[in-house]
Structures are given as C-alpha cells and as structure tokens.
Specification:
By secondary structure, the protein is mostly helical. It has one domain. Helices cover 76% and strands 0% of the residues. Helix 1 packs across helix 3 and helix 1 packs antiparallel against helix 5. The longest helix has 31 residues.
Amino acid sequence: MKIVVGYLLAVVAAYVLGAVFVSQGNIAAVIGMGFDITTSQRIDAMIHDVTHMFDIYLPLVAIGMLIGLGVAGLIIKYVPDLRLVGYVSAGFVALIAIHVILKAVLGLSGIAPTREIMGLVLQGLAGAGGGLVFHFMTLKKHAS
C-alpha cells in the first residue's frame, strides 16, 4: 500500500510541478514578445494550467512515472545504496522521455516550452521532484 500511495503522490507532485513549469515557460515567451505580465497573471496562469492540463498531461505523467519508477525499483534491488539517486533520476528521465517520444512518434511538441532545452530540462526537474517524493514516501522506517 505504501508503494501505491507513494506512486500516486509522486505523480501528483510531478504533474503539478510540470504544469507550473509549463505555465511559466509560456509566460516567458509572452514576455519575450514585449508584453508585461503581472504577478497576478502569473498565478492565474499557474492555477489554470494545473487545473486544466490533467485530461491529457496527467495520464502521460502517470505512465512515464510508472515505467520510470518501476525500472528504477528493479535496479535498486541490486544497488540499494543508490535508492535516492535512482528514483530521482528515474523521474527526471521519465518526464523528459514522454516529451521526446511524443516528438519522435507524432512529430509534435504537445507542450510548447519543451521545444526549447530549458523547458525540457524543467520538465525533467518536475519528474525528479516526483521521484524524490516517491523515495521518501516509500522509505522503510528502521527501529532503533
């Protein structure tokens, strides 16, 4: 049960971080065109993206994290000392992979900021955040 809860929280963390990074990446493009954006508009954009991207983006994050964390779990069985690095790296790679695979298979970037390397790296950091959540939520407590 701890693994399921950890996975669900990792997906939520990666999704929320990823959606926030998407909104801020889009805002950066708007600012680059010479428009002024207020803090209130930034917050509104973040809330909008977090609450409106779940129908397409959330399933992609869930699938990517399921594969990434699952593979990391198999590897970590053999090198348990690398547990933290393994899950964080798995989340990072998982979220980058979903965007790279979409581009390779469908020929499109479903999320505009991922067309630039910084946007893609930020999506990876969102996945790393999810991997970090999974790591801590699934740690075994040792009795002293």
